[in-house]
Every structure is written in structure tokens, then in C-alpha cells.
Amino acid sequence: MRYQISGKQLDVGEALQTHVKAELGETVEKYSQRPTDATVVFSRNAHEFICEATVHLSTGLTASAKGHATEVYAAFESCREKMDKQLRRHKRRLKDHHKERAEPVEFAQAGMYVLAAEDDETESDGGSLAPMIVAEMETKVPTLSVGEAVMQMELAGQDLLVFRNEKHGGVNVVHRREDGNVGWIDPRNSN
Fold it and tell me: CB neighbours of 66 closer than 8 A, spacing ≥ 6?
């Protein structure tokens, strides 16, 4: 597994890097036989250390976790425990509800745009009704089943996931609702 361990305005020493590789490697290999790479970023917010870890699995799924503590090693342990819990749930769901995926998840390229926030001044001055594009980039849209999409959204800690439904190839969305449940939008099923 490839590791990228860095710090934001924080020196990450050799001892911490060795500790992260050993502990995170053990955690990930316990639940996933084929992890591809891991990114771990340490930062500091006032008196607190923050550890953010992202692990990419060979199935195409991504797991991410974040830990906080007053010491850097404790922040990593908090993050590692959350990652362990996510990967354990992921493996249990695969065993219980989903077939073993024989091939990796397919990704399609799609355009992604960042739009500027609306300014009250531009509307009152008779400005354009079209939003201003701040950034334009490429993103990947995975081809998943609905259950796998929900699992990926939860593993990544996101509130929304756009995916291509593997049953019919259409673009679908799963999202976290305000009531805590998960919503699924499939435009193909609308009348």
C-alpha cells in the first residue's frame, strides 16, 4: 500500500510516519485484502491536533475518517478507530447484503463547476441572471448499485453522492435527509 503522510504547517517526523504506516496498515489489511493507497494529513487548530485519513480500496470505494485530540498520536488513534469502525461496517454489509464485486467500480468523467455565491449588489444593479463560474474541473462518477452508493456515501462521510446506476446506466443521487434517513433520486422512475 502506498502512503502519503504530510502535515499542514506541522512537521511530521520519521517516528510518527512509521507509527502511522504500521497501525493504519494493520487496520486496513484486517478488513480489506487489497488496499491501494492512503493519504494522512495532520494539522493544528489552536491547541488541538487534527488527523484526516483517506484510504482508497481496490474495489473503487473510498473510506475517510477524521480525529481530534490535544496530542498528535492521540489524534491519529482517534482517526484510526473511526476508520476501523467504517471498514468493519463496510465488510459486514458486503457479506450480508451484496454480492462480491468481481471487477473494480467503473468511473465516468463528468464536468464539475463551482459557481460564485450570489451578491445582492449585482442583482440590484441589473447584473446578469447567469451565475459566474469560478472554477471548472473534471470529476469521476462511479457506476454502482444503490446499496453500494449509500455505503460509499457513508464511508466518505458525505451528505450527497452522484452515481451511475449499474442496472440501467442512468445518473442517480443518494443523499442524507434532514430526518436522518437516506433519500434516493432516480429521474428514470419519475412519471
Answer: 50, 51, 52, 53, 79, 82, 157
In sequence order, what E strands does 87-166 have? 106-115, 133-144, 160-165
Nearest alpha carbon to residue 28 among 104, 83, 92, 94: 83
Q: What is the pLDDT of residue 143?
A: 87
pLDDT of residue 91: 76
Q: What 8-state DSSP symbol labels residue 117?
A: P
Cα distance between residue 67 and residue 42, in whole Å: 10
Cβ proximity of 142 and 105 under 8 Å: yes
Spatial separation of the C-alpha atoms in residues 21 and 4, rounded to whole Å: 10
75: which 3 cell numbers? Answer: 489524534
- pLDDT band at 49; cut points 50, 70, 90: very high
Over residues 28-53, the mean pLDDT reads 85
pLDDT at 98 over 50: no
Closest CA to 139 of 116, 113, 110, 167: 110
Please report the domains of the chain, with CATH numbers, ordered by start residue. 2-97 (3.30.160.100), 106-189 (3.30.505.50)
CA distances to 3, 80, 89 from 66, rounded to whole Å, are 17, 8, 17
